[in-house]
Amino acid sequence: MTDRNQISTFTLTPNSSPDWLDAVLRSSLAASENEAEEVSAEFRERCRKAGQRAYYIARLRAAMPLLGFLLLPFADYLKRLAALAGLPQIPEQLGLANPPELTLASARPFAHLAKQIGMNLQEVLIQVRVGVACSVQAAALQLIEARCRSAGTTDNLLIECEAELRQIESQYSPEVFRELQQIQQEIRQAWNEQP
Amino acid sequence: MDEEAFVEFVEYFGPVFRNNFRRWGSTEAEAEEWAEDIAVDIVLDKAHKYEKKEKGSFKAWVLTVAENAWIDRKRRQLPVESLDEIGQVAGEAGLPEWPEDRPEHQPLEFPVDFELLEHAEPDEGFSEIRKAVREAVAQLPLNQRTVIGRHYSGNLSFAEIARTLDQRQGTVRMWHRRAKLKLAVVLAEDPRIKSFIERNQNRVEESV
Predict the structure, then answer these.
(1) pTM score of the predicted model
(2) How far is B173 from chain A (nearest CA, A)?
(3) Does the CB of B192 have a partner CB in chain A at under 8 Å?
(4) A128: part of which helix (H) or strand (E)?
(5) Mean pLDDT of B62-71
(6) Are A130 and A71 in contact, with CB atoms under 8 Å apart?
(7) Nearest to A17 by CA among B165, B84, B126, B151
(8) Which has the higher per-residue pLDDT, B97 or A29?
(9) Which residue, among A1, A16, A20, would best test binding to B if mutated, counting the most B CBs under 10 Å from its CB?
(10) Is B159 on the interface with A (CB under 8 A)?
(11) Testing the interface with A: which of B74, B114, B134 to mutate, by most A Cβ within 10 A?
């Protein structure tokens, strides 16, 4: 029987390990299945879209080794990759416009996607430069291809391609050259971010 | 490749991670962003590494992977490398271990029967206790919070925690003891806990 006049006290010393604290920690910290219901509908929707995005990334990633490196503007390369992966277009869940267009504003999501699907930064940057070259000079791609025809390995291909690009870029206006540098800078920064 | 499987994985684990991260002290925005990122990262890069024989249930394994990812990200937010250093740095701004002005040989006394908490019926007031406990745990330094979370939420032994954190068992036990002392000091003074005990005390007395 409980004595109404009895006052229970709790004494805490630096070496205490009270049982009540163990009980409270266990019951308070145990993961509850019901807690998932506390999550907002918006977050659930976000997770559903993230799951779809993961699926599309996995599809593109699986197609990457089949396609390898191609001398194409970056956005065109992604379209080609999507087609090879059996996707009719680049899915909106990947966060790019459709059709995808690489600009300073869209450089970050492009870079994140490229990294997630397992592309190589050097190859991405060359494809970005190829894209700008094609927009400035209609015959740029043919010039680069002609120079790279006898390159042999991918490493040599990249070296030859960069040499030709340097020549083409030397004729850019300061504005175009600055914008290209900004896009490249944005891509490098995004590449080093998490994830 | 099955689209449904990817979606189901992130739809299921995203909210679970989010709630765990909130419990371990992430803000709501951080918990949601990291939960989404980490769930995607696991389904894309890690899920295929799961080996049933070695790692127990798939769910427990995924939760451990997510927790390690959360710790890695937390570490990157702090200007120190080791968990032990994190404990020292975060401890300066965190909960007091023992009231500074009180000699260690002089115990703290509270006129409250905390033993009631061991046998209390979880009524609606218990969610207040849970909140108080989680708020207090969130104020612990990362190393102590990690041990408390893994021990009480993940049901891991100290030996298992030591292995997953790459620390000695004695170190883990010390972090646990320090964390519990801080929590006891803070929770014993928490008005939500006091009022829960009073309510339950009255209930016991009325039933007599």
Answers:
(1) 0.69
(2) 12
(3) no
(4) helix A121-136
(5) 88
(6) yes
(7) B151
(8) A29
(9) A20
(10) no
(11) B114
Instruction: Give CA angle at A53 (A52, A57), nearest 5°.
Output: 120
Q: Which two tokens stand for residue B177?
A: 């003891």
Determine the Cα–Cα distance for residues A125 and A107; give it in Å rounded to an integer.
Answer: 11
- Nearest by CB to residue B137, choosing from A26, A29, A61, is A29
* pLDDT value at residue B79: 52
Q: Is the pLDDT of residue A160 over 70?
A: yes
Inter-chain touch B130–A8, beta carbons under 8 Å: no
Query: What sign does the CA torsion over A35, A41, A46, A47 have?
Result: positive
**Stretch 58-117 of chain B: residues touching chain A, C-beta under 8 Å:** 63, 73, 76, 98, 104, 107-117
Q: Tell me the pLDDT tens digit for each residue of A75-101.
A: 899 989 999 999 888 888 887 877 778
Does residue B15 belong to the interface with chain A, where contact is any CB pair within 8 Å?
A: yes
pLDDT level of residue B80 (50, 70, 90 thresholds): very low
Q: How does pLDDT run across B151-175, given as a tens digit for each residue?
A: 887 777 888 888 877 788 998 998 8
- The whole-angstrom separation of Cα A164 and Cα A173 is 17
